[in-house]
Amino acid sequence: MRARAFCPGHVTGFFEICIGEDTLTSGSRGAGLCTSLGATSQVEVFESPERRIEVSIDGVRRDAEVTIGAINGLLGERNVSVTVATHLDLPESQGFGMSAAGALSAGIALCDILELDRNAAFEVVHSAEIRNRTGMGDVSAIHRGGVTIRETAGLPPRGRIHRIDGTPDVVLAVVGNPLRTAGVLDDPDSVSRINKEGGRRVSELLAQPTVENFMRLSASFAMDTGLTSSEVRNAMGSASSVGLSSMSMLGNSVFAIGPTAELVPILSDHGKTFVTSVDTEGARLLPE
């Protein structure tokens, strides 16, 4: 049995880390946008005397903890062989939500094969992301779609997520080396600054929920937390001449809105660029 699914990526502009009673109530408050560039997974399930899970990403076999953890959660007591072939549209560990997108695309496809409710995929992937500290709010935001404000932490319906009107084109630029999310989350000083600056910005965006205000609050969060590298600051400075930009949390990368034809050459001077639209459709099955 075989199925294919796509899941959008996600860029966080600012956030506050929130640990609840369990993984489904844990995550982050904050704001971000879902991208039309994401992950596509083909999943095949075979009869087997014992459970086997094999995951490849862009043709390379990987020990993908989040995807494997999610698949184990969906399989329950079943002993089958599962192969996952995932293609990523964007780089990993650059704040584009590729861990969540890869695992969710695989989970949605597996739910179709096993005739499970697709919400089971969101639950197991969100929980796996929290346990592995690879992302705190990506799955919740992707569940809602579009440009979102995560007012309360956790996967919906536990977490309360609002969508902001607007679907701008977005230019992404990778300007430095990958950044491990867990490495930042394990630093108490970084967490303290993130929570201080992120929490109040949620309230400010809820009071004025526009894409432009989201971008401005994201840029000030990036600078006030000290999370930006010199490469990110330089790219943001260049992009500010024609548009609004900020750091993709958490990565050495930038996202920007404005005149795309002008932003692309400006940001191309700093690193590899990608042009994406805001995705409002969410994770979905694809035809074979």
Q: Find the structural class using helix and strand composition.
A: alpha+beta
Question: In the residues, how many domains can be counted?
Answer: 1
Separation, N- and C-terminal Cα atoms: 11 Å
Rounded to an integer in angstroms, the radius of gyration calculated over CA atoms is 18 Å
Fraction of helical residues: 25-40%
Largest sheet: 8 strands, mixed
Oligomer: single chain
Number of strands: 12
**pLDDT average, as an integer?**
95
CATH class category: Alpha Beta
How do the strands and helices of this protein lay out in sequence?
Elements: E1 2-18, E2 27-47, E3 52-57, E4 60-62, H1 65-75, E5 80-88, H2 98-114, H3 119-132, H4 138-144, E6 147-150, E7 161-164, E8 170-174, H5 181-185, H6 188-207, H7 211-224, H8 230-239, E9 244-247, E10 253-257, H9 260-268, E11 272-276, E12 284-286
Parallel strand pairs: 3-5
Antiparallel strand pairs: 1-2, 1-12, 2-5, 2-6, 3-4, 6-7, 8-10, 8-11, 9-10
